[in-house]
Design a protein that fits this description.
The strands form 2 sheets. A 9-stranded mixed sheet has the order 3-6-7-2-8-1-9-10-11, with helices on both faces. The radius of gyration is 22 Å and the shape is elongated. The chain has 2 domains: about 220 residues, P-loop containing nucleotide triphosphate hydrolases (Rossmann fold, 3-Layer(aba) Sandwich), CATH 3.40.50; about 60 residues, Alpha-Beta Plaits (2-Layer Sandwich), CATH 3.30.70.20. The chain has about 280 residues and is of the alpha/beta class. α1 crosses α11 and α5 runs parallel beside α6. The structure holds iron/sulfur cluster (2 copies). One iron/sulfur cluster binds next to α3.
Length: about 280
């Protein structure tokens, strides 16, 4: 089963939920936790351990100017504006290139070859018995988050239980992370911004046909608007985590709620069972 933990906005506590769920389940089964928040991965902070790092690359075109007659075909083909053919040279903007390979194929003079370009890294570790942690990290200033997320998910392919922690928002990296997931936990907080962004996240999950449920985090007990929205959308509220100074203090020192207060493990086990039910997996 592949579970996604996402949120329409940042700072709702989705990484905390993913980390506590993985920590709790790892004591009884094999769990792979994948940090798909590649611009700002932070799950490794909860699980310090020796790790193996590999580079992630994507193929980019390199033009052999001596073989190029400036026919313009590559520039006409590129839908992303990454190649512009000038009278005396070719202008290539690597940050716009999506590595589709099309310009190499359409060049009549075989003047374009592809070379790998580093865009980030994947780090793998085994921080505790029963857990594999995969963290994708995008190189600073690089805009290509999606290939890193794809590569991180490939490292988890075939593992029995995968929990993916998403980037916040509803853009391409989130869609890539959700692709192929069996169910999605949407973490929100009961504020007007939280509700607005929850609505967007629910819409994305629905468009991808992924069953979703909601966790209300830092609840001050005034959750009526969020509960009304969830009821109207037929969304299960899977868990409510209260606003608490003690929980905030545990997190701010980089600890896990379920490690510091083991009684919470029962709640996260129950969350897992609800997710299985959402995903249509037999108990
Ligand atoms: S398609 Fe090939 S030959 Fe034509 S401009 Fe591009 S690189 Fe040069
Ligand atoms: S590989 Fe695709 S996206 Fe990149 S420059 Fe060539 S045509 Fe454009």
């Amino acid at each position: 089963m592949k579970l996604a933990v996402a949120s329409g906005k940042g700072g709702t506590g989705k990484s905390m939920v993913a980390a506590n769920l993985a920590f709790t389940l790892a004591s009884t089964r094999q769990v792979t936790l994948v940090d798909c928040d590649v611009e700002e991965p932070n799950l490794h902070l909860f699980f310090p351990a020796p790790a193996t790092t590999t580079e992630v690359t994507m193929p980019v075109p390199v033009v052999d100017e001596s073989a190029c007659d400036h026919c313009g075909k590559c520039g006409e083909f590129c839908q992303y504006g990454a190649i512009t053919v000038l009278r005396d040279r070719i202008l290539f903007l690597p940050e716009l290139c999506h590595s589709c390979g099309g310009c190499t194929l359409v060049c009549p003079n075989s003047a374009i070859r592809e070379e790998p370009k580093r865009i980030g890294t994947l780090t793998t570790s085994a921080p505790m018995s029963g857990m594999k942690l995969v963290s994708g990290k995008l190189d600073e200033g690089n805009p290509h988050a999606v290939p890193i997320i794809r590569a991180a998910k490939i490292l988890a392919e075939g593992d029995p239980l995968v929990i993916c922690d998403s980037a916040p928002g509803t853009s391409c990296p989130v869609v890539e992370m959700l692709d192929g997931c069996d169910a999605c936990i949407l973490v929100t907080e009961s504020t007007p911004f939280g509700l607005h962004d929850l609505e967007l996240a629910v819409d994305v999950a629905a468009r991808l046909d992924i069953p979703a449920g909601v966790i209300i985090n830092r609840s001050d007990g005034k959750d009526q608007e969020t509960l009304r929205f969830c009821a109207g959308q037929d969304l299960d509220v899977l868990m409510t985590i209260p606003f608490s100074r003690e929980i905030a203090a545990i997190q701010s020192r980089g600890d896990l709620l379920c490690r510091a207060r083991p009684e919470w493990q029962e709640d996260f086990c129950s969350l897992y069972l609800k997710c299985r039910s959402l995903a249509g997996v037999e108990r």
